[in-house]
Amino acid sequence: MVDQAATTRREAWAGSQADGRRAPLRLTRKQQSWLLRGLSIVFVLLLWEWAGRLPVGPTFPTFTATTVALVDMMRDGSLFIAYGETLKAMVIGVGLCVVIGVAMGIAMGLSRRFEWVTLPVWVISQAAPMAAIIPVITYIYGVGVAAKVLAVVIMAAPIIVLNAYTGIRNVNQSLVEMSRSFLATRRQLIFKVILPAASGLIFAGFRLGLAQGLTGAVLAELMITPTGVGDLITYNRSVADYPRMFAAVFSIIIFASIGVTLLQRAEVRFFRPDQDKSQ
To answer: How far apart are CA 142 and CA 135, in angstroms?
Structure first.
């Protein structure tokens, strides 16, 4: 009885010691992904700071000076006023691309004849140099908002259309055949089978089109009319205020990254929920 009681006490003491030890910290896949992203961003910013302090060029500011200039532009409101002007053309252009471009891509994916007629046009549009097209836009539409909207459409439409077309074309044919075997009408086949199956790739086209639309809007402001964020870049370059110029460029990168990330999260949440749970 004495030996059994001693053994019981030793086991209880060992258990309490084991409970007192901390288990090793293990990150989830999602936490590891965010940690690696954060480290990569920090590495790039430190490299920027180091390159500015060398310096690699007389006009290349440090990351610290650029951040200070960005905060000053936000404080005096010039950055927000510029983005209000830039986003006006971008929202109109991307909105037109979403409505008309997706319809065009769906029509191309569902009709072979329509595909043969229109697909080469979109492929050529995607490969066309934007810098060569913008002067033509200026001659036709002048330097107003219409020219900037057209520049956004030219940049964003090919990606949105081709993504929608690819999504329709890559729908699993077994789903289509199964729906036809259950005597589904063409309308039911399109809206209940094909579009839900292709929605992930279509939404990815929205994400890429948003980034291209912002690029088109800023490029139009740099080459057509000095307004918005393009005007901030042009003006600060002309007065040799390079920290503010780089701050305007850096704000474009931040804005595009946040917008694309939010759309990507929405895409995963609504169209690929299984992947969201696995992370």
So the answer is: 10
